[in-house]
Amino acid sequence: MANTRCRRITAAAALAASLFTQTAVAGLYPGVSNLNHTCSLVDPILSCSSGASDPSAVDTCCTETFGGLVLATQFWNTYTGFESEGQVLPKNAWTVHGLWPDFCNGSYTQYCDLTRQYDPLPSPNTTTGTPDGTPVPAWRGPDIGTFLAPLGKLDLLAWMNAHWVAQPGWRNGDFWGHEFSKHATCYSTFDVECYGPQYREHEEVADFFETAVAFHRRLPTWAWLEASGVRPSNASTFSLADFTGPLTQGFGAVPYIGCAGPKYNTTDAGKGSSDAGYTVINEIWYYYHVYGRVQRQQGLAVDANITGGRLTNCAQTPGALHYYERTTGSEV
Ligand SMILES: *[C@@H]1O[C@H](CO)[C@@H](O)[C@H](O)[C@H]1NC(C)=O
Ligand SMILES: *[C@@H]1O[C@H](CO)[C@@H](O)[C@H](O)[C@H]1NC(C)=O
Ligand SMILES: *[C@@H]1O[C@H](CO)[C@@H](O)[C@H](O)[C@H]1NC(C)=O
Ligand SMILES: *[C@@H]1O[C@H](CO)[C@@H](O)[C@H](O)[C@H]1NC(C)=O
Ligand SMILES: *[C@@H]1O[C@H](CO)[C@@H](O)[C@H](O)[C@H]1NC(C)=O
Ligand SMILES: *[C@@H]1O[C@H](CO)[C@@H](O)[C@H](O)[C@H]1NC(C)=O
């Protein structure tokens, strides 16, 4: 459960991470001034387009030049493990996982600025995920959720507690710290220089959370499925197409559909099959390129396999999938 992102790090991403962390003192690019990042003065440039490819030719605070393939990711979990502490799941809604900046070629790096490391359980524990990477020290301070009150963002904190719920066994605030430090530090537009000479401590943290929330709120996975008659059920099973169809229609491009649980051919139902896909639906990843800084919230939906990657790790056999109902008492 410690690894919240079940994707292997490619060798290329690992190399990129090792190169960048050597220079990552504050932000992703050395020597960026904290002046003159008024993004409304420039026409928004689409990330991953040719116009966004050279960070020295654009304002990296106004154009996403580092992680231009943006993934709004959602979880379907059936319990939290901390129900007794009030950490519960929202009724009729998927929850936020994160808003990730992948490289335009689909690989990615992580923990790009260790001066903003607020993850108490770094995963992986080095920037590359290998022993020769830079160690990511565990954060021992108060959880990142506490950064929001001094910024007057208790409404955001409340919404996050309801909708940005950690996977079983994690506390929400620890999970948000993980998402921020592992992923948000790898956007050029959330670098602190972008916030000017009167930058307030943690301002970009709140800005990132607001941005992730804004993307999530436009992706009503539960309702898109429900409108097609696909509701969680512990009595029946589903096919991949039950999810791909309505979500592609709702989003406007093909999302990635993620599963966990046992592989189909290790289950009784799939005995003897060659389908080794996983059987419990638990994640959707929606892919975008973004116009201007991601904070503008203007994404262009793109297919999840735009870089050639696969569209699912789920079993493809008809009727192989579970979309489980939440545990009684885990959902309010
Ligand atoms: C993907 O893009 C990143 C950033 O530009 C680069 O460092 C990496 O080498 C690329 N990976 C591949 C497989 O091309
Ligand atoms: C900021 O913009 C002003 C007005 O264009 C210009 O005079 C100044 O040199 C710029 N400063 C930096 C650090 O870019
Ligand atoms: C990372 O985790 C591995 C496996 O648990 C451990 O062997 C290694 O010492 C850790 N590295 C750091 C830098 O904490
Ligand atoms: C499941 O399918 C995979 C891929 O076809 C195969 O390699 C594996 O041996 C199968 N496992 C079982 C338990 O049948
Ligand atoms: C993405 O997947 C679709 C459907 O499987 C396929 O038709 C398309 O060629 C794929 N695109 C890429 C870039 O691999
Ligand atoms: C449905 O099944 C899942 C997976 O076994 C379980 O976690 C959940 O509690 C069940 N929900 C209900 C309402 O029985």
Automatic annotation (TrEMBL):
Domain of life: Eukaryota
Signal sequence interval, chain numbering: 1-26
Keywords on record: Endonuclease, Hydrolase, Nuclease, Signal
Keyword Cell membrane attached: no
Enzymatic class: lyase
UniProt EC number: 4.6.1.19
Record-stated family: Belongs to the RNase T2 family.
Protein name: ribonuclease T2
Species, as recorded: Apiospora aurea
